[in-house]
Amino acid sequence: MRRALGAAQEAAGRGEVPVGAVVAIGEQIIAVAHNERETGADPTAHAEILALRRAAAALGSWRLCDAELFVTMEPCPMCAGALVNARIKRLYFGCDDPKAGAVRTLYSLVDDPRLNHRVEVVAGVLAAEGAALLRGFFSRLRSARLP
Question: Is 120 helix (H, G, I), strand (E, B) or coil?
């Protein structure tokens, strides 16, 4: 999760919402990503999606059954759906997302019994650090917009 927080800090430095993600198998990091929606003009360029794409490319398979994802904020519906589709084994996330959280805050997509795969979840990992990055980023953004 510390590596995901580092990626989130990098995102903030590039004007992106500071969310970072890491895909790992055991102790080996397979992929690291941060949000790139602004720089790529891509609404799907969330940290989780990019990390899943990079991990699948590195492993040569879209099935990431032995992989774990570490992300600094609770995934949105798009990303939670991607975790199910990628067959991620376990998700570790930091802070909750009260506006778009699809793991436990607004929805519970990753453990919906109607879907073909369920993801184990460990919530609240270094949550304070992830939340502080987000608060600082949006505070600076609001200050920059004031006259």
Answer: strand
Selected catalytic residue, list 16, 48, 68, 74: 48
Show the DSSP H helices in the chain as ranges.
Answer: 2-13, 37-40, 47-59, 77-86, 127-145
In this structure, which amino acid lies at residue 88? Answer: I
Q: In what order do the strands lie in the sheet with 120-123?
A: 28-34, 20-25, 68-73, 90-95, 120-123
Which residues does 126 contact at the CB level (< 8 Å), separation at least 6? 1, 2, 5, 72, 94
Q: How far apart are CA 4 and CA 26, in angstroms?
A: 16
Mean pLDDT for each consecutive 10-residue tract of the chain (147 residues)? Answer: 98 96 98 97 98 98 98 98 98 97 97 96 98 94 77
pTM above 0.90, yes or no: yes
- Neighbour tally for 145: CB within 10 Å: 7
Let me know if 48 is a catalytic residue.
yes
